[in-house]
Amino acid sequence: MSTVAKGKKSYADAAVEKYVSKAKPAEEKKAEVKETPITEKFADIKENPFHKIVMQSTATPQDKQKEVAKALAYPAFLVLTGIGVIGFLLSYVMPTFISVYAETAKSLPVATQLLIDAASAAKVYVLPAFTLLVGLMLIGRAYYTTPNGRFNVDRLLLRAPLVGIIFIKHHTIQLARTLGTILAGGTPLVEALHITKSAVSNRYIAAGLTAAVNEIREGTTLAAALDRPKVFPKLAIEMLSVGEETGSLELMLHDVAEFYEVDLDLRLTQLTTWIEPALLLLMGILVGGIVVIMYLPVFQMAGNV
User: How far is 109 from 111, CA to CA, in rounded Å?
Assistant: First the structure.
């Protein structure tokens, strides 16, 4: 086994031992916690190399929200830049080539003719399409301001491909950090959940917390109530279950927040690492393809000389 692999394994073992030590009851009980299937599953953290637990993180939910926005800002900038470059080529460069090719009586290559037809159609429909897009954005914004619209959009965001898991982990951190802080101040669980619900920005999750409060009042555990909507990660639910069983819920909520802060950082790093070169490659193919297609008649004439 390599030195790096040994280091990762020892680090994970130490992290699990730290969690197990926190999962013990208070000292006055003078008894070890009995192993349960949940604690056995919880020990599987050390088998996942991507789940590195770091206890020094002090980032707030607001900091995480800024990190998510920052990670998605550059890919959005690349998309807008690519659209602008392609629009410039089709609007200002392409007409020059069209006027030159119109003076020749030779037929154009199929690809060039199709591009010219697309550019001509774009000039006709670009203004109506832009107006329609702006109208749809205004309608969507107005719908989002309604309670039902906000609820539906927030639910769709959690299920969106690629970014959905990022939103889920972000709101898991937000919930765990806020609820743990409130419980540490001595607030009862039901009242703490009420306060946490108002602090959670996702309305779909907030509605799930409302249902969780009612279930907890009827005797359901926090872990079981939060697991009902099937939104939060399974590992987070199991960690909370361990915290409830051992009387260390506040500590476990704090650990859940720190654990998923590291996991979210990893996700954001992976997202930006892969999406940036993919977008650059796509932009290069599109722009390069347009330029080559515009010059195809020139290459064709040069070949006939």
Answer: 6
* Phi, psi for residue 201 in degrees, rounded to 5: -80, -25
Nearest to 260 by CA among 225, 233, 227, 231: 233
| Summary mean pLDDT of the chain | 78
Helix (H) or strand (E) holding 120: helix 110-144
pTM of the model: 0.65
CA-based nearest residue to 267, from 259, 278, 279, 277: 259
Tokens describing residue 132? 């329609």
- Check if the beta carbon of residue 231 is closer than 8 Å to that of residue 208: yes
Q: What one-character-per-residue DSSP string does 41-97 give?
A: HHGGGGG-TT----TT----HHHHHHHHHHHHHHHHHHHHHHHHHHHHIIIIIHHHH
More confident residue, 271 or 157: 157
Contact assessment for residue 244 and residue 221, using Cβ atoms and an 8 Å cutoff: yes
| 44: its two tokens | 């599987």
State the DSSP code for 188: -
Query: Measuring CA to CA, how many Å separate 73 from each of 78, 93, 216, 276?
Result: 9, 29, 40, 11
